[in-house]
Amino acid sequence: MKQSLMIYGAYGYTGRLMVGLAAQYGLQPILAGRDAARLEPLAQAHGFAWRCFDLSSAHSLDEALRDVRVIIHAAGPFVFTARPMLEACLRTGTHYLDITGETDVFAMAASLDQAARTAGIMLMPGTGFDVVPTDCLALALQQRLPDATHLQLAFGGRGGGGISHGTATSMVNKLGAGGAIRQNGKLVPKPLGHEKLEVEVDGTHMFTMAIPWGDIVTAWHTTGIPNIITYTRVKPAMYQLLKWQWLFNGLLRTRLVKQWIQRKIDQRPAGPSDAQRLAGSTCLWGRARNQAGQSVTASFTTPEAYTLTAHASLHIARLVLAENWKPGYHTPAGCYGPSLVFDLPGVSALQWR
Questions:
Q1: Band of the pLDDT at 105, cuts 50, 70, 90?
Q2: Which of 31, 39, 183, 238 is the residue whose CA sits 20 to 30 A from 227?
Q3: Rounded to two decimals, what is the model's pTM?
Q4: Half-sphere exposure (CA, 13 Å, Cβ side) for 292?
């Protein structure tokens, strides 16, 4: 009987965080990836089994997942890596979790809902900071105002030390793509940073701009609210620059520019240091309103985003292994309710206004 958990991309920045915390959750994952030289010492250091394979061979994928009950897919960019893993999970009856924040991947997984129900598995992309906290916030707001028609969600870091190679690489692949919102139930393209919003969370003032965060797909599935805009914290001067990005989108989409930026990323540290992560935190803010003009606002804070991602993914994996899951495509809050994020260490209580 399939009982095991696998972490694919275990030697990546976030994968290593999950490996280091796995024992705390009573888990003994199989570590996996395509580089044996990086896998073996990591597995030996933690006393875990390991398997080396890439995503190009359906046969190799099926063999690797033959006894795996749940996989946490942590090797991006997910716009390229999610489909072969999703299809392998459908063939082998393996529950699929990943840490993406890419809207295309959420839409892809949602399109496989019926196939997953037929296979008797759950597909849940976005089990990390993308999008567990915002998804839980969205549902909490919708439950407080059930006839809400508009939803705004904003987040911003305090400290934390920047982003990982994997996140940066995913961003490079989206260069020149612009922004998007959910409008009257449909995804509508917008210029990046087409709208700004100033909010306050836990005494921290945040200047934010609109970006195409995963919730324009996931929060719509979770709440049914037809109009959704998501925002992230930026410096006002950066906002002024990004407002004009649309003028250069053609250049940003060229291979030469992307390769140059990727080389710069590869020269940087893999991600925030442990000290930076532990010193960092993230602020979440949301507001829902209805056609009558009534509104509700709520906020809370979490640990730094990568720390939150590791805890949330392992927590959800443990729930699935305990047979707490639903067949088909699901969002985190859609399956487990708005309290999910508040079960994680270091998350503050929800503050209503």
A1: very high
A2: 238
A3: 0.90
A4: 7
